[in-house]
Amino acid sequence: MQIKNIEIWKADLGLTRPYSIAGESTSSTENAFLRIELTNGHWGIGSAAPSERVCNERMEDTMAGLEKGAERLKGKDVGAFEALKSAIAEELIDTPAARAAIDMALYDVFCKSLDVRVVDYLGQKHTSLPTSITIGIKEDQGVKADLEEFIAKGFSIVKIKIGTDVERDISILKKLREWGGSAIKIRVDANQGYSKIHLAELIQETRGVGLEFVEQPYFAPALVQMRDLSEGIRSQCMADEDLKSRSDAVAMTRGPLPYGSWNIKLMKSGGVTGGKWIGDLAGMYGIPLMWGCMDESRVSIAAALHTAFSCRATQYLDLDGSFDLATDVVTGGFEVKDGIMYLTDAPGLGVKSL
Fold it and tell me: Per the confidence metrics, is the pTM higher than 0.90?
């Protein structure tokens, strides 16, 4: 099972629904891809969606990391799967998105060689879960139109971006509850946009809205500031930008828990291997997990879903990152029915090249 060839490329996947969050607006997305081919004909694919804002990784860093990793892998036997993953993790410590792409490609081709799904290799704990679908920062009528569209498509959980104006945020959240009624769940992502005063005001004024949680209210790193808050407020907050690596996860288990839940993204954690490690640690401490994403190909969304379904602590999904892509390089991997995500029965990640 030697690696015969490795192909690396990047592609503009476009966006059918541009959006804004606290601090930036996005109208297109570029992903990098790596495809491993074995001498026996099996192949595996991985994708990367780097974030300079979150991980200080630019696309050029990702492409360089993929090239570096490919040189390390050429001619190697994927039977040495665990050793290959470890070597890549050490080699690409500063480029987690590149590391994630290679990691998931190795999982894909290795599990195909065994004729098992990645989730079966990891140990399946869940078979299906609902995902939230995201509404960006926009005017009231735009929010209402998105909500009505998503409800019509069967989604029952919405995540709305906030963090630029707390008074405006409170107003739109109350309207969102009014428009959606009791049938929908609402979670919010402040994208590091709040101060301590703003967070307290938001939580106090939206008690009647019934928010699931507030994602990353403060600019990271924020563990000291979060631990200064009451346990009641901390328990309602979810770590995102504060959770990028294994060391970040360990730091958040020491002392008072700064967040009530964690958001794991493969592009931050370095792939299936890193995400699974953090997920299992969360399970040891009874910390509920959400699995999130950037604007990503179905390749990495499928990889995240396989990993999420292998962790007992998984309670939430926010894996809508491929829903608004204008194009992609694969199909398959997962299905979405009435907002609920399921893996397919195909081996590996389950994706098929277009």
Answer: yes
